[in-house]
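Help needed: design a sequence for this.
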């Protein structure tokens, strides 16, 4: 597959995708829709990891890098609709089984704070299931908060060096 250059003025965006309900089906379909909307993606392997914060089936997590001219609110609205099309239920607890979860991890070098908390870059980067796939496809992507690359952050992660089960999509 040919790698196309990013459109002029497009922002690199790193997404984290996860599912623990029919995960292969939902992640495959989400990637197809992302490609149809945004063009060429760089996609990490999918890793099977235990649910974090609740008892549930294991998750499949991966990451995708795309380029878009959409501002963050428009992109998040589109991703929210994508999750909804795949049966995402939002009425239960925050940490729960899900058909599809797609989060913006980075939107260029944007730092977005809500109240006293940083929302972009995503705080979930501290979890191996977000950081490892991100480091796989965007090792040189610099965290605007720490000034460190994905590769450096992953190398220093407590789970660096552990074996992760890769699941083909």
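Sure. Designed sequence:
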């Amino acid at each position: 597959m040919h790698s196309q250059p990013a459109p002029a003025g497009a922002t690199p965006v790193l997404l984290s995708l996860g599912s623990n309900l029919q995960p292969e089906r939902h992640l495959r379909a989400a990637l197809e829709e992302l490609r149809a909307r945004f063009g060429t993606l760089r996609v990490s392997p999918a890793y099977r990891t235990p649910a974090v914060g609740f008892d549930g089936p294991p998750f499949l997590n991966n990451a995708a890098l795309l380029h878009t001219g959409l501002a963050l609110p428009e992109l998040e609205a589109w991703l929210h609709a994508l999750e909804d099309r795949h049966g995402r239920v939002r009425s239960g607890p925050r940490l729960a089984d899900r058909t599809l979860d797609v989060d913006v991890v980075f939107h260029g070098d944007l730092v977005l704070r809500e109240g006293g908390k940083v929302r972009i870059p995503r705080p979930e980067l501290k979890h191996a299931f977000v950081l490892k796939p991100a480091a796989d496809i965007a090792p040189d992507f610099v965290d605007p908060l720490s000034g460190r690359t994905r590769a450096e952050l992953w190398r220093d992660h407590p789970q660096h060096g552990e074996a992760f089960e890769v699941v083909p999509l």
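The first helix runs from residue 23 to 38.
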